[in-house]
Amino acid sequence: MRISSPKLTLGIFSIIVGILIASQMKLNVDQITPVTIQSIIAARNELNSVRNEIVDLEKTIAAKEEELRLLESIGEGEANLVDILKDDVYKNKVAAGYTSLKGPGIQIVMFDNMNLEELSFSFNDDIIHDVDILNIINDLKVAGAEAISINDQRVMSYSEIKCGGPIIRINGKSIGTPFIIKAIGDPQLLMAAVNAPGTYGDTLRTVFGIGLQPYAEDEIRIPAYQGDFAYSYAGLLEEGE
Amino acid sequence: MKNKKEIAALIFVSLLLGLILSIQFKTINKSIGGGALPTQRAQELANDLRKAQAEKESQLRLIQELEGKIEQYEKGGIEDDIYAENLYKDAMKYRMLAGYSDMSGPGVVLEINDPPVDIQYGEGFSIVDELDLILQVISVLNAADAEAISINDQRYTAFTEIVRAGNHIEINGVSTSSPIVIKAIGNADTLESALSIKWGIVWQLRNYDYIVNLTQDKNVVIPKYRRVKEFIYASPVEEKLQ
Fold first, then answer.
1. CA gap B61, B65 in Å, rounded
2. Which of A14, A73, A224, B166 is most buried (CB neighbours < 10 A)?
3. Smallest Cβ distance to A134: which of B104, B139, B166?
4. ipTM of the assembly?
5. Which regions in chain B score pLDDT beneath 70?
């Protein structure tokens, strides 16, 4: 029997097309599920960071190979172990923060909000806390600071920066406001790290009214670590342990 | 004329369908770029990533090999020379202080897991959003006389930066993400009590719904700093005493 109604034919065909497209999409979605645009971007970011690590590792390898080449040349009488070791001691001393350093950089003067009229929600918002200093220091490190000091106390890997009532303790010494943070590095980058809109330093200044004045300088001097840090718990990791 | 009207309607609907489909394809192609199919692009990326990681592994092995050789030379050279031996000890001391040697000793391990995802609001928050909490943990550990600290096996040195990069964290230029495992060597009791004091940092973290595990460990191993720190801007000040 012949179906005469064109509407019926059209209806049936539309349904078939709909089912086809739907099944097609379902099929594709099934394959693509792990490949969303976000996952591609994430993979690309990961790839970039691994490549950056590789660049860093290559530098390390080059340094080690140079060291090894020097050591091997001892046998030929070109170098001597004492000189190499002296050099090594000096290099690590600089890296460890046991020498004074100088170079271009910035100096930041920080002081509490002294405005008496401006009533904040809490007096706590008006004063500088250890977290503020920690964030500023971290921002400076991100901008490639090579040495940092706070009120002439060198910031070391084992420097604590803690609130202790009216003062802040660093390297076991108490310091009060104003805090003078010095950093050696590219002055422009360092300035941007504490000054650019949206940075932590900018928020401190504009929202909380805390005094934060960075100055770029041609020569900053940062003193060596003066404390007496010694290992009493940590030891070298022995091989084959 | 009923028939013509129907045909016109059909043509209109088909045109619309075609337009929608083409726009859909165009947008997907544009946002992925390169005209490549997304699956292909993803596979390429995955391959590149695997290759890069393999390269990284082999480089790490090479570095270990070189370090072993250097140590042999140095140890062999100082055997019959007291002056060189003292120098070698000095070199080791400053290497330790600069973070260029693996360390082990008693200490604590602090694990910070992201809070469970809130079912009601969908997306939860992560430690990535609150990096200053990590900075505070480190400062507290240092105040409690920690001698060496690592975050997700990255040694914390005077140059270590903690920076957010998209959805993950970069520490020492190496990307990592939650859970954050902070290890510290020092007096384990002091370290633990400094962290877990009432209203202290661990309390604060738990208050923000982070799942925090703090344990003492008799043998904490903290790896060395792997980067070569170049001083481009800073130069040593000549000491006046000499």
1. 6
2. A224
3. B139
4. 0.74
5. 1-2, 28-38, 118-124, 239-242
